[in-house]
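B., you asked whether I could sanity-check this one before it goes into the benchmark set. Here's the sequence:
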Amino acid sequence: MSPSFKCLIVDAFPIVRSRLRDTLETLPSVEQVTEAGKIEQALDILKRQSVDLLTLDIKIGNSNGFELLRRARAHGFAGKVLFISSEDYSTYSQLAKESSANGYISKSEEESLIKDAIQSILKGYSLFKLDSHIAHSKQMPLSEREQVVFDYLVQGYSNKQISELLSLSAKTISTYKSRILDKHNASSIIELMNYQSHKPSVPSQYTQIAL
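And here's what the prediction gave me:
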C-alpha cells in the first residue's frame, strides 16, 4: 500500500498558499492539505492533527518561520519541513539545514522544481542549495536565534518589542544584537543591511542528500 501524507502550508499570502495547495494535491501520495496564514494558527493545527510535511516561509507576517519551527519541535512535531521562500538563499539555506529542516527552495524556482523538491523530501531526502561563497567564507554564521533577532531588527523592531515577541529580556536581545554585529564586523544594523543588499551573486546549485 502506498504511503499517504498530510501536509500543512504556512504562508502569509493566500495566493501562495493556493498555488502550493494545487501543487501538493497533484501528488498521489498526498492525502490531505491544510493551510495557515499565521504562526499561532499553524501551531494550533499542529497540536490538533497529525502533519507529515510542513512547508513554511522565512517571514510569516510579522513573525518568523524559524521561530515557528523551533516552537513546533519543542511541542513534539517530528514531521518533515521544507522552507519555500523568496528570501536570499545565501543567508538562509544553511541556517534552515541547521534548524532541523529537510530542505530550502526559492519561490522564484520553476513550479516543476518545487514539486520535485516536495516529492524528494517526502521520499526521505534533504534538499538544500549550496553556495561556494558560504562554504569558503570565514565569516561566522548566525545561530538560529540570532537570525530571528536580526530579521526583526531589519524590519525596524526595537529591542523591547523583540523581547516581548520572543519572551526574552531586552538585555538578552541587546546581547544577541552585539553578537550579530561582531560576527559581521559591522558597527550598526544599517551597515549590515547595506552589506546584505549589495552582496554579489555567486554560482550555486541544489544538492540532494539521502537521509
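One thing to flag: The first strand starts at residue 5 and ends at 10. Otherwise nothing jumped out at me.
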